[in-house]
Amino acid sequence: MKKEQKEERRETKRANQARIAQMILEAGAISKNELAERLGFSMPTVLQHVKGLVESGYVTESGEYGSTGGRKAKLLSVVGDMGFAAGMDITENHISYVLVDLQRELIKRAKIRLPFSQSFSYYEAMGNWLQVFLEQAGVERGKILGIGISLPGIVDSREKLLVHSHVLHAENMSFKRFEGLVGYPCEADSDAGGAAYAELAGEEKDAVYLSLNDTVGGALYLNQKWYTGSDSQSARFGHMVIEKNGRPCYCRGKGCLDAYCSARALRGEDKNLEEFFEKVRARETGYRRRLEEYLDSLALAVAQLHILFGCDIVLGGQAAGYLRDFQRELDRRVAEYDRLDSDTSFFRIGKCGAEASAYGMAIRFVNRFFKEL
Ligand SMILES: [Zn+2]
Fold this sequence. Notes:
Helices cover 42% and strands 23% of the residues. By secondary structure, it is an alpha/beta fold. Helix 4 (120-137) crosses helix 5, helix 6 (191-200) packs across helix 13 and helix 10 crosses helix 12.
């Protein structure tokens, strides 16, 4: 056999093993028969690779199917504590830490108060708290696959660079230095990118993710890939103009979506959204009206995005969770703006909660680990 053919065969074998491992991860628990059926592999191929995965310690055989008679099939699942990854979500005054295991279960979380500054001492404090967090979790250093960092702004992931953040008042901040400091592989992305990954990675359908945090951002998931545009310039939905000569925006433009649909625009002078919605529920003067204006602007944006992309639109970020109670109202308004399509089932509020950004950054390492097995 020629050298190239041997090489090719080895590559195919490796790819098949990775596909089997990924399917076990996705399924949570799956039998060998189901694996063969879903992947279109022969039983000997499945058996051979499963044996390898079990021997390596990443997969275990456990549990049994329900009692429908006959021989009970053992189920395969990923061994959670064979590897871990952490995610950090950086905001103006806090850092949230999460730890996930190889099953992508969120096993530990913490939030500390640490006002942001573009300085070396901030890197050090970030790293020290990370170390404390990992030590408290009792995880061996060698089992950490990597650390994902979510940042509120425009991020060049390839360069691990925070290009610009209005919320943090920061520019051109490189996280390569942080990586050197902590000694783990690190990745950085925008908070919208992190949360969108938690929400959409692995899905088959295209989707536009609209993130409603203190700034408005987003992500595009097309053909099962992330479309970032040239120089990570895509999906800057916060600066779509929804009203000519409208409210001023921090980009010095006028009428940008950010000035109408950020969590900050919704809560106004209130400390947080919880406080704002309490006042809405208590029918305090002016609050219901502000909410209605917010819903109207948001509906316009959702309809515009649907007209542009013609795919699912998913809402995420701090404000999204609070909008569940107003979904019907939002649906009605979206239908009014998207006159060519009265069906609003294309749009939904994301299922991932407040830690979506940090969680999404962490599970990237786990998914990649299984892809590259
Ligand atoms: Zn703007």
